[in-house]
Amino acid sequence: MTATVSIENATKTFGNFTALDDVCLEINAGEFIVLLGPSGCGKTTLLSILGGFLVPTKGRIAIGGKEMTNVPPAKRPTTTMFQDYALFPHMKLKDNVGFGLRMRGVGKAQREERAKAFLDLVGLKSSADKKPHELSGGQRQRVALARALAVDPDVLLLDEPLGALDLKLRRQMQDELKAIQKRVGTTFIHVTHDQEEAMAIGDRIVVMNQGKIEDFGPPSEIYMRPRSLFAAGFMGEVNFVPGTISDVDSSHAIVETRLGKVSLPKACFTAGTPSAGQPTTLCIRPEHFRRAGEGDVAVTALGQATVASSAFFGTHYRCHLAPASAPETSIIAHMPQSAAVMEGQAVNIAVNVGDIVALPSKQA
């Protein structure tokens, strides 16, 4: 089964501390949603409210169109999967997976059949009679997922379930988790602080900060067209170039910066309509810089810069550049593998203006 989730004006306070501040969110049935943000941003508080472990100070929660705000966890159409797996060490895998069904009064033969079916879903049917201590961390994570799905929840809540795994296994499990979600069709709501993980698995990402939603959308949109400076900075590496809008016409705005004057299409202003005199910050990803004259796309020159340092990362050179017009400013740029970049070298840098995002500086 699967269900929509509606969060209306959810707020949670603990004494004088506001952990969640007037959050509104609509989640479609069958979506894989990722709540992303730093520690203390409110993502786990929101997940706990959805699971019924916390009651919002104010606001409303609905799942599948039904009021759930004050419904206890056991009576909600949700299950929660935690980072520590919480498997019973004395039970066989099939009994761990079938435990929730046992609590619901399902007969032994039926729950064992269902448990084996879900162990098969996660690739562990042949290990049904083993105990958790005989498994690797990744296998135990799969058992916990099978147990959560065996009770047929409308919504599965995942609280940093991959956080205890090493990098290689975590990436493997990201792929498997996404594939399993597509097969079962259940609505997944997944908490993480790992930006790469969020982009790898999420249909849409909710970027949170200080109890509020900063941005919400598909991974590519959050990365390429962020709507706040926090979202831009949290979703990977970015250069922030302060400036001021000097002129605006029907289609473009002129922004004066320390790197020079840049004419931007209005579509680059993702957080509102530009106006003359407005302080603005240009957000430029390192991979969007290039040396003037490279590539086929028309670019805007940003002047000459000196390579202060560079390191080869396999797919690119990561360079720190000191612009001639603002030598105190450090620009991080990714140059292609074929670029022969050396410390002290002078390069003419450019960028496709369509790749720049301009956001109001007051959001910093």
Word description of this protein:
With 364 residues, the chain is an alpha+beta fold. It folds into two domains: 5-233, P-loop containing nucleotide triphosphate hydrolases (Rossmann fold); 238-363, OB fold (Dihydrolipoamide Acetyltransferase, E2P), CATH 2.40.50.140. The protein is built from nine helices and 20 strands. A six-stranded mixed beta sheet has the order 6-7-8-3-9-10, with helices on both faces. A five-stranded antiparallel beta sheet has the order 13-12-11-14-20. β4 (58-63) and β5 form a beta hairpin. The two termini are 42 Å apart. The model has no long low-confidence stretch (mean pLDDT 91).
Quick overview:
The chain has 364 residues and is α+β, with helices and mostly antiparallel strands. The chain contains 9 helices and 20 strands. The longest helix is centred in the middle third of the chain and has 18 residues, at 167-184.
Task: Give a quick set of tags describing it.
9 helices; OB fold (Dihydrolipoamide Acetyltransferase, E2P); Putative spermidine/putrescine transporter subunit ATP-binding component of ABC superfamily tranporter; elongated; 2 domains; single chain; 36% strand; 364 residues; five-stranded antiparallel β-sheet; alpha+beta; transmembrane transporter activity; ATP binding; Rossmann fold; NA-bd_OB-fold; six-stranded mixed β-sheet
